[in-house]
Write a structure and sequence with these properties.
mainly alpha; Helix Hairpins; rod-shaped
Length: 111
């Protein structure tokens, strides 16, 4: 069996590092998407309610707040989540491109 050169070892290490980064990004993105779905469901419930106020869980307690205020808070949170998702998608694309680049280099080196 042939010994790998330092350059090849470095490429493999970089490739593994980028794979881990990509995996972390995907997990974060999926978590944020789940949060966005929960917020959408909460907003649907608030839109259907005839009540003037509803409860919001804050830490260990439930606080009574006006429905419109809750809708505003949820919409702001959803906007922030959407921005973070878009940012993660851009990062995911960059890391994915770097992985493809490194994979091509590794194929050349191994041949």
């Amino acid at each position: 069996m042939t010994e790998l050169s330092e350059e090849t070892k470095n490429l493999i290490a970089q490739f593994q590092s980028y794979q881990q980064q990509l995996q972390t990004i995907v997990i974060q993105k999926e978590s944020l998407k789940l949060q966005a779905i929960e917020i959408e469901r909460a907003l649907e419930e608030l839109n259907e309610t005839k009540q003037a106020s509803a409860y919001k869980i804050t830490g260990q307690i439930m606080v009574l707040k006006p429905v419109e205020e809750l809708k505003k808070e949820l919409n702001e949170t959803k906007e922030n989540i959407d921005i973070r998702i878009k940012s993660l998608e851009k990062t995911e694309e960059k890391v994915g491109n770097k992985l493809k680049e490194l994979q091509a280099k590794l194929k050349e080196v191994i041949k």
